[in-house]
Amino acid sequence: GGSDLEKVWEDCGCILWDLSASEEHAQFMVQNLILEVLLANIVVSPSSRVTEICLGIIGNISCHEALRGRINSTNGLVGAVAEQLLLDDVPCLCEACRVLSLCLKGDDGAIWAEALLAEPFICRILWIAETALNPLLLSKIVGLLLAVSENDAVSSILLPSLMKSDLSSLLINLLAFEMNKLREERQPERFEAMDTILRTLEALSTVEGYSREISLNRTLWQLAKEMIELPDKIEL
Q1: Helix axes 119-131, 109-116, angle to 10 degrees
Q2: What distance in Å separates the CA atoms of residue 172 and residue 198, rounded to the nearest whole number?
């Protein structure tokens, strides 16, 4: 039956996911057309778990700088990964954000930036950041925005559209929300998201054309002041 076949696929896929963390294994897998196999599965599979595993393997391969060029040159793969942002499954979204963040940081990040420039993707990225309730997903989607801000070639392509859609206010509102959570109860699982938000604001404050908008924001100043005044030491 279909469920039995999917279970076998999942078991084998998870083995490949683990093996792909090794550059030697990942190189062998890429030489044997795993990227084409993963692309085919992403395109046709109705299973969120299968999609998550495919993206997880691609994410591990993306960690190996020498192999990113093979990902970029696999026909249709860049667009297929970008389209996964339109899914509603949290694990799939987390893995898609991981792949995109890694590839946006690379030398060929502009290729990925061009794929994300379409309005549906810009709106979707901001919508996920604004509505994410899962701390891990929030950290991953803001991490994607951090990757955009830290690569000059990528930021020149994507930041104008993101800032036009009020990215700075979104990040400051997210920081305010996390500060409120922090005042109510210390939740260590939320610290990574807050740290990523702060790093993204810091990166934006150094980008020519946007630094003034960030650094002169009174709300941000007040939030930073309150964070410094927190009575307990916290590594943020």
Answers
A1: 90
A2: 9
CA separation for the pair 227, 236 (Å, rounded): 9
Residues recorded for the chain: 236
Instruction: Residue 204: name the closest of 143, 164, 155, 132 by CA.
Output: 155
Amino acid, single-letter form, for residue 167: L
Instruction: Give me the residue label for tokens 């060929």.
Output: 108
State the Cα–Cα distance between residues 93 and 51, nearest whole angstrom.
10
Q: In 3-state terms, what secondary structure has residue 164?
A: helix
CATH 1.25.10.10 fits 1-117, yes or no: yes
Structure confidence at residue 235 as a pLDDT band (50, 70, 90):
low
Cα separation of 75 and 63, whole Å?
20
Backbone angle region of 207, left / alpha / beta, with phi > 0 → left and psi within -120 to 50 → alpha: beta
Contact 71, 77 (CB under 8 A): yes
Q: CA 182 to CA 184: how far, in whole Å?
A: 5
Contact partners, residue 153, CB within 8 Å, separation at least 6: 109, 110, 113
For 210, the 3-state DSSP assignment is coil
Record the pTM. 0.92
Q: What confidence tens digit (pLDDT) does each residue in 46-58 have?
A: 889 999 999 999 9
Helices 90-105, 48-62: crossing angle, 10 deg rounding: 20
Give 168-181 pLDDT, tens digit per residue.
999 999 999 998 88
- Distance in angstroms (rounded) separating the CA atoms of residues 125 and 211: 22
Distance in angstroms (rounded) separating the CA atoms of residues 92 and 34: 19
